[in-house]
Every structure is written in C-alpha cells, then in structure tokens.
C-alpha cells in the first residue's frame, strides 16, 4: 500500500517536470528604467540685458587693466573730487540739478532729462537721451547722479565732449557760471585759477567769503528790524 502511494507521487512529479519542460514559463522581465527628464531650455536674455551685461564685463576688464578707475564707495564730496570748480559754481550746479530732479530721489532719470533738454531749447530723441546718460553713467543704472551731472561739465571744460553732442548742448545752454566763461574757455580759466591758488587756500578763502556774506546779511536784517521797531514805537506814542 505504501509502495503504491510512493509510486503515485513519483509519477505526478515526473508528469509535472515533463509539463514544465514542454511549456516553460518566460523569465520575468526587468523593471523598465525611468525615462530621463528633459533638461530645461536655456532662457534667452533680451538684447538690453545682454548689452548691459556686456558693458559691465567690459568695465571690469578695463578696471583690471588700469584703463579706468574703480567707483569709489566713500561718501561723495564734490569739492574734493572736482577741485577745478569753485564752491559757488558747484552750488549753482547743485541748484540746477535739484530743479530738474522732479522725483526728489537724488537722480535725473530719462524723462526728467527729456524735460530738462526741452526747457533748455535743445530737445533730444529717445535714443539721444539714452546716449547722453550712457556717456557719463558710471554705475550703469540708466540715470544721472549729482556726481555724473558734474562730470558732464568737467568733460565739457576739458574738451572731452563732441561739439554737436547732447551733453555739450546741455553744458552750453545751462545758465551757470561755466557757461558764461565759455565751455572751451572754461578749461583755461580753471587751469589759471588752479595755478594761482592751491586747492586748500582756495577752499579756505571761499569759505571765509561765505561766512562774511552771511554776517553782512544778518547785520542788515538786524538793522531793518531795529528800524521797524523804532518806527512802530514812533506811531505808538
């Protein structure tokens, strides 16, 4: 009985092995690899941004080669950076700058420069205005700081501006002392003044003149007040 049961088991096992050999099952497929994610396309910079980046890289290269001076981080002092200008001339230029700084942010932007040139009687195109700013725009911010505004007149006095440029028109038409001397003649004027006086003595002399002027104005105001009080007392009696 046991031998018959064992024989049946062996027979079933042989039949199962034979069936597996006749119909083998395919090997399981490997898991598919994940598809690579497409790389993001490079963002194309607009022409203006590309030009600005190129200008900044060019300036850095010029600084490293010593062709231009790096911008200073210290507080701007117009009297020391532009010693060829008198204190009164710098004050006149500052008043002119503030007159057209409509936004009161310490800068003359493109629209404010447009208004300025129109009032001076020398209107410029949009490209002409951008070219004017670009010529003295040391920090590439697209507007004029007071230092850059002074740089216009420095370049004009040094003969570094084209005769038909917008900046030359601005320097000639501005109602300030440097225009009265003549833009080209201003160079000789400033050089002669620099030879006659050192920067320190000139600064001290102008400072004393301002103090004397204030004292004179205060004395005149005091005398007018005293005269008014005297006249008032006369009518009161």
Q: Roughly how many Å is the radius of gyration?
A: 41 Å
Main sheet makeup:
none
Any low-confidence stretches, pLDDT <50, length ≥5? Answer: 177-185
Beta strand %? under 5%
Overall shape: elongated
Straight-line distance between termini: 159 Å
What is the chain-wise order of helices and strands?
HHHHHHHHHHH
- Count the E strands: 0
Give the structural class. mainly alpha
Report helical residue fraction: 55-70%
Written account of the structure:
The protein has 237 residues and is mostly helical. Helices cover 65% and strands 0% of the residues.
Produce the secondary structure layout.
Elements: H1 2-22, H2 47-65, H3 78-81, H4 87-100, H5 110-119, H6 126-136, H7 146-157, H8 166-173, H9 177-181, H10 185-196, H11 199-236
